[in-house]
Specification:
With about 625 residues, this protein is of the alpha/beta class. Strand 15 (about 355-360) and strand 16 (about 360-365) form a beta hairpin. Helix 13 crosses helix 19 (about 620-630). It catalyses: sulfate + ATP + H(+) = adenosine 5'-phosphosulfate + diphosphate; adenosine 5'-phosphosulfate + ATP = 3'-phosphoadenylyl sulfate + ADP + H(+).
Length: about 625
Amino acid sequence: MTSSYRPDDLIATDIAEYLAQHQSKSLLRFITCGSVDDGKSTLIGRLLYDSKMIFEDQLAALEADSKKVGTQGQEIDFALLVDGLAAEREQGITIDVAYRFFATEKRKFIVADTPGHEQYTRNMVTGASTADLAVILIDARKGVLTQTRRHSYLAHLIGIRHIVLAVNKMDLVGYDQSVFDGIVADYREFATSIGIDDFTAIPISGFKGDNITALSANTPWFTGPALIEHLETVPVGVAGDTRPFRLPVQWVNRPNLDFRGFAGTIASGSVKPGDQVRILPSGRTSTVSRIVTFDGDLAQAGPDQSVTLTLADEVDCSRGDVIVAAAEPPEVADQFSATIVWMDQTPLLPGRSYWLKLGTQTVSVSIREPEHAIDVNTLAKLSAKTLNLNDIGVAEIATDRGIVFEPYEVNRDLGGFILIDKLTNATVAAGMIRRALRRAQNVHWQAVEITRDLHAAQKGQQPRLLWFTGLSGSGKSTIANLVEKKLHAMGKHSFLLDGDNVRHGLNRDLGFSDADRVENIRRVGELAKLMTDAGLIVLTAFISPFRAEREMVRSMIPDGEFFEIFIDTPLEEAERRDVKGLYKKARAGEIANFTGISSPYEAPETPEIRIDTSRITPEQAAELIIEHILGVWSPVL
């Protein structure tokens, strides 16, 4: 069909005037999502084509590519404008998130084309995180599918409040109104159940152009609006203007001794010189002196503006702090209930320590076993021990220190976070804080006068944590016991936490699943930290098979006081010894999740001390360790 839409003639006649008008237009960010092959890329390609946002050489290349690798015969395959990866063109699917810009006479747009395959759901979440509107596409021949429900649920969960239901490929069902009405009714039932109270349904054909930029004669029963008309008129950016002022500090600008400013992007509200502000989490207050930008000082600044604030007082403020309206501060807490979308092939390990990044704040976090997972088809709450790829669940999380936050539905910037694996630096999940836990508000640090340093001075020693790790049968307990005997003979105050002994009491409720092993080490780490705070030299003898948990414990202890001691004994030798007969039982299948046989052991990469038990005796190893921890270096034997 022929579109009635015309681009702005000023592009050809007065480019300066066109750019001036263009700069003042509002911006709408939206995503297209839905199931596989519902026509998302084709729709975006059509929008770019009809809005004349492609150059002549791009059009020529598109026509050539359509004949070569297109899926529409000899006609233009609009999806090729967006599917730029070779793998996408070969398979005819979208893999990565593709961002495209286009504009009409009334508004500018940034659209994210998100993949429909379930395995790329994490990419859809990425695209949705900054969107104001979601276009949910449905193939008129297939109706509402599981991925349609998943993407709709995620869009609503992430906070997108403007939903367009685009029933695509109407040309392939003869523009049948009954098909359209049936799909809309099915979707409405699901949408209502997840809290989507309103959406705009439009019958379209991305390939033919029906109801994209103008109403189509092929659907006389549909009275509008056309898709582009709706995108041009949907309201954007209203809520941010009425919320209290929030500025997450990205960096401290100190070009010389006479200037100190705090730079960041305003997340909500507005600010002007003279306003009273509060620095969180410290709580210190001050007054805004200047609002500095590259183009000069401002009299006022609002949401999404990048600015540098100078304050009247010399306050302690750094990256990760949040400057807020003094009279309307957000909360600070360290325990939360959160909704988590798991985006990694490796499942969540409850108790494991991850990095949590929320705005400019980065903290260490542990996650408890999920309260439940959510079935996106039925919305049933399912019992879950963990979260796997693309699972959505609710869990309690605890950060290692208080963070500034607001519930996600109030403020995306201070309520949305990502989780990062500490070893691989891979983003493993996205999450939304729903509320602080009441116990976080009721439990506070109590100041004490006998400090860690005083405890250590009383004992005349420097606290240490000697973390012995290695396979079962490697000799950890034997060597640790010899080290403690030597420390005791020297008059040092020490305590040995042995893996088997601890499981008789403190950790008697834990098994040997990966999650239980993580919790086992977390508890021992917390106990060891308390004992070093008392000024003791603490020795632990645990297999502790995972690097992540050993690094978690290291992060609890002051620098220079944690010593990872790798008792490096080959599996064959440890199995030959088999003092407790455990390897024999594991080989017979009588013990599940046995380290080295049916469960992995991640050897330390850079331990402070490595003991090669094939070269030295336990007595020699103990002597070497004593020399090292008392400050006299001896090479590894």
